[in-house]
Hints:
The protein is an all-alpha fold. The protein is 86% helix and 0% strand. The chain has eleven helices and no strands. The chain has helices spanning 2-5, 9-12, 18-23, 25-29, 33-42, 48-55, 60-72, 76-113, 119-204, 208-214, 218-271.
Amino acid sequence: MAEKSKKPKDQTEVKIxxxxxxxxxxxxxxxxxxxxxxxxxxxxxxxxxxxxxxxxKTVEHQQMxxxxxxxxxxSQDYLDKFFAVLAEKGYNHIVQILKDQAAKTSNRDxxxxxxxxxxxxxxxxxxxKEMQVNFHQLQMKAMQxxxxxxxxxxxxQMLELRKHxxxxxxxxxxxxxxxxxxxxxxxxEKQRLKSCLQELQKKLDLKPERRRDTVKTNKxxxxxxRENDRLIREMDIAMKKIKKLEHDxxxxxxxxxxxxxxxxxxxxxxxA
Length: 272
């Protein structure tokens, strides 16, 4: 019985490396996460928090793939323990397939390099190379993800900024249009008062002999003078109103220009 259960020496020493894992990624995803999770926790290969995170995936193969991402980053010693759990939990056929592939790779590499590098050193060099390749790939993916995120955030920021400035400018333009309308009305009132004053002044400037024909009593003449004074006061008020509206309109136009300048400046900062 002892002879029967004894495995060949070279098979027991075969290590399932990350490159073998990568070549069999689809096969490993077929393993049910729920079949192995308890043993992995009991042997401290994953934490309880990690198991919760993996269980959070709704699709079963996604749970296993999330676990494989974690396993892939671990040391060879960790990988040995992980595949030992798989073999114990009913997945020995998968482990054996991976070991057979690892053995073929190891034998091929040994034939090529046995006269140059010792077997243990070769394994370490391969691991270092794999780590370098994986690190470079992870770096590139992280940079690509970051670029996409920044691009998306930049577009969202620019859209929000544009909406904000458009809203502020529209508010200022509404005020400007209202002021322009008030200014036109004030100008009309100014012209009306000016015409009234001119007509009244003609009556007041008449020579005494002609005035008697137009203004029959001294009382009527004084009434014309009072009306003239009132029109002058109204004209003064109208002129002040026009001056204020012109000043307000100039301020609104300056504000709109400044808002445009700020908008361009902030957009340039976001793009940079």
